[in-house]
Design goal:
The chain is an alpha/beta fold. It has two domains: 1-80 and 158-260, Rossmann fold (3-Layer(aba) Sandwich), CATH 3.40.50; 89-155, no CATH class. The protein has helices at 45-52, 70-78, 96-106, 111-124, 140-152, 170-185, 197-203, 221-230, 239-247; strands at residues 7-16, 19-29, 34-38, 60-65, 81-84, 158-162, 189-193, 206-211, 214-219. Helix 3 packs across helix 4 (111-124).
């Protein structure tokens, strides 16, 4: 029996004017994974995420999310998708509780379930005493926690998150990392773009590295490290060493080609 990937991309491309932001990416990500999507600034990460969430349409190639295409079954995808952008907009004149109630109602959730989910995440993110405060009074870290709660309120099967740890204190960041692992253990999928290689190494079951619009690696962190060490890297090399070897424009050691 063939298992349908949660995310499946085949030769996906996107060009802006004369710049090929995403150049023939192919990926297949099953359920139950925390997938780390890594790359330097301008590598194509955000463009890829915007196509995965239906904000942008690919110029060519095929994209299926949760077994559906945005062109034919957009609502079926969005009903099962939680998206956390790097710069989320929150309604400042609502309280945190009002925001979650509003978003839950947009998802056609019943009021009892919305309240239960809201209470769960206010407790989890230590926001219970701030639930009835206006969002405009929230700190940056508190807003980031509220964004996470907003994306998870409807219990999505796929969570796509762009830089989840920005603005979080160490305690909150640890809880988010634990949460992503818990979600994966429940059979859900987390697709996470991050600049924090430590976070990727600690949390992700698999990582993909994009450079100049092309995928240059896609495997478990331990396998990528093993390949790098086989090619002469130091014994104490980490995911940062893999990242540097694959994204350096003029590598000092041209023998380090993990896909060779």
């Amino acid at each position: 029996m063939t298992i349908q990937p949660v995310i499946e991309l085949q030769e996906m491309t996107k060009t802006f004017q004369k710049t090929r932001a995403v150049d023939g990416i192919s990926l297949a990500i099953p359920s139950g994974e925390v997938y780390g999507f890594l790359g330097p600034n301008g590598a194509g990460k955000t463009t890829t995420i915007r196509m995965l969430t239906g904000i942008l349409i690919p110029d060519s190639g095929r994209i299926e999310v949760l077994g559906h295409s945005f062109s034919k079954q957009r609502s079926q995808i969005l009903n099962r998708l939680g998206y956390i952008p790097d710069r989320a907009y929150l309604y400042p004149k609502l309280t945190g509780y009002e925001l979650l109630m509003f978003l839950g109602s947009l998802r056609k959730m019943d009021m009892a379930t919305i309240r239960k989910q809201a209470d769960k995440y206010f407790e989890m993110f230590e926001l219970r005493d701030k639930a009835k405060e206006l969002i405009e009074r929230y700190s940056h870290g508190m807003r980031q926690k509220l964004v996470l709660a907003s994306a998870l309120i409807h219990d999505p099967d796929l969570i796509i998150v762009d830089e989840p740890m920005v603005g979080l204190d160490p305690r909150a960041a640890r809880r988010i990392k634990e949460l992503f692992k818990e979600l994966a253990n429940e059979g859900k999928t987390v697709f996470m773009s991050t600049h924090s290689l430590d976070v990727a190494e600690q949390v992700c079951t698999r990582v993909g590295i994009i450079h100049k619009g092309k995928m240059v690696a896609d495997d478990r962190p331990d396998i990528l490290l093993g390949q790098l060490k086989e090619r002469g890297a130091a014994a104490d090399s980490d995911l940062e060493a893999v990242f540097m070897a694959l994204t350096e424009d003029e590598p000092h050691d041209h023998s380090i080609q993990l896909n060779a």
